[in-house]
Amino acid sequence: MAEDIERGIGKCAQNHLGSYGYPTRPAEPYNYCPACGNPMIWRCPDCEAALPGDPDELKAARFCRDCGASYFGEDA
Amino acid sequence: MRHSNRAISPCAGPVFDGDTGRFRRYTAQYGKLLTERDVLKLEVSYRALVILGAALLSIWLLVRLWPVLLLIFVAFIFTAALIPYVEWLVRRGLPRALSVLVVLFVILAVIGGLFALVVPAMVDEFRDLQANLPEDARDFERFMENLGFDTENWDLPERAERIEWDRIVSGDVAVDYGQRVVIGLLSALTVIVLTAYLLIDAPKMSGFLYRFVPPGREPDVDAIIQALSRVVGGYIRGQVITSAVITAFTLVVLLAAGVPNAIAFAVLAGFADVIPLVGAFIAVVPATVAAFQESPTQALIVLTALVLYQQFEDRYLVPRIYGSTLNLPPIVVLIAVLAGAEVLGVAGILLALPATAAGRVFLDYWLDRRTPVPTPPGPPDEPLAPDLEPEEVTRG
């Protein structure tokens, strides 16, 4: 069933959002942003914690809420 | 150098008027000068014209297709209410189409059974009422007289005898009601078929919906669909519970009071409970009238019990069953019901609450989107101001 497929959203350093697992989207997380070519992140690069599930929160987030690591290696 | 007004050609563009310090335009039609403030320029792009045309076409289609859209809207509401049960059967291994058929069959069987119970009993009750009305009116006058009312000029039995029942229940009126019943049945059949299709195709439809959503925004769609399903489905399920409770309570009261056709009146109260505001009136009056045919005292007992129950339902039961599902202020409910009645009649009254609750879901989403999301705090161990030593940071 469609509900059993893993789904997720991620973003790149330019704050372009992406998604996988939804109908008409790639089935797996992809490596680079189709809009700007920057690497995409789908989990915290440091502790593998999930990114915020809400798109607006994800856009605003720059650091992992679990370990505090910067998502894109920038300073606070 | 000063410009003379006469020197301006009718075809000339705006010229500077040294007297006033403003640009002026000469109009050939009236032979007078206008200031720039008087000239209204309207520049419409092709895009705006296309949007305007599309908007007008949409309004025209909306008006023309309104009856069809209404049926689709009702089917969507039923779909939202029934989809959890279909999914429950699908999770237990039943094919989706069969699950939909089972759920619809059970619901139609229950509703059909209730109608089969109510309609013949209501016809009997109406015949009894017709035959006994003058006698009942005489009893009522006597009862009111005992209470101290001056009933000398009421003439209720004579008025009851003068009612021309044939004119009320036959001829054009009967044909008109017959047509309405046929149209209502056809509409109900259409809604059932549409609901079945929507329930079967729900997974495909959600896939189609995602096509219009930008990448990364899918969780917003999920949240809206879940909220709509919770609010609209929760309303329908809550309504089923309150209808069942009022049916049981009315049945107990009428049986205790020895009112004939108790089951029919109880089921009628259950159906009437679906209608906001006026439903209470419909639930109470026929049962009271039937009790009155037995005796005024029985009528008084039934009336008191049912009115008290309405208060109990409004103040205690509904807030606990619905909880925050609808969360609509009473004034909004009243306005929604009045507007629904004005626009769509009885269908509008029935749809007013789920439609308003669904509207609230979209309003909440829009308001949430307007509220900026606070930027999450930095790493927990990082000092507030990295350039300062911790002891140098003071709090005002």
Brief rundown of the structure:
The complex is a heterodimer of chains A (about 80) and B (about 400). By secondary structure, chain A is mainly beta. Helices cover about 10% and strands about 15% of the residues of chain A.
What class do helices, strands and sheet pairing of chain A give?
mainly beta
Overall body shape of chain A: globular
Low-confidence stretches of chain A: none
What's the pLDDT, averaged over the residues of chain B?
78
Description:
The complex is a heterodimer of chains A (76) and B (396). The termini of chain A are far apart. Chain A is mainly beta and 76 residues long. Chain A has one helix at 55-60, and strands spanning 8-12, 17-20, 40-41. Chain A has one domain (1-61). The longest helix of chain A is centred in the last third of the chain and has 6 residues, at 55-60. In chain A, β1 and β2 form a beta hairpin. The mean pLDDT of chain A is 85. Residues 1-12 and 378-396 of chain B have low confidence and may be disordered. In chain B, β1 (15-17) and β2 form a beta hairpin. Chain B is mostly helical. Helices cover 71% and strands 3% of the residues of chain B. Chain B has helices spanning 46-64, 66-91, 96-146, 156-162, 165-169, 172-200, 202-210, 218-256, 262-272, 278-294, 296-322, 330-344, 346-370; strands spanning 15-17, 22-27, 32-35. Chain B has 2 domains: 5-38, no CATH class; 70-370, no CATH class. The interface between A and B is medium-sized, with 29 and 26 residues.
Task: Outline the fold blueprint.
The complex is a heterodimer of chains A (76) and B (396).
Chain A: E1 8-12, E2 17-20, E3 40-41, H1 55-60
Antiparallel strand pairs in A: 1-2, 1-3
Chain B: E1 15-17, E2 22-27, E3 32-35, H1 46-64, H2 66-91, H3 96-146, H4 156-162, H5 165-169, H6 172-200, H7 202-210, H8 218-256, H9 262-272, H10 278-294, H11 296-322, H12 330-344, H13 346-370
Antiparallel strand pairs in B: 1-2, 2-3
Helix pairs in contact in B: 2-3, 2-6, 2-8, 3-4, 3-6, 3-9, 8-9, 8-11, 8-13, 9-10, 10-11, 12-13
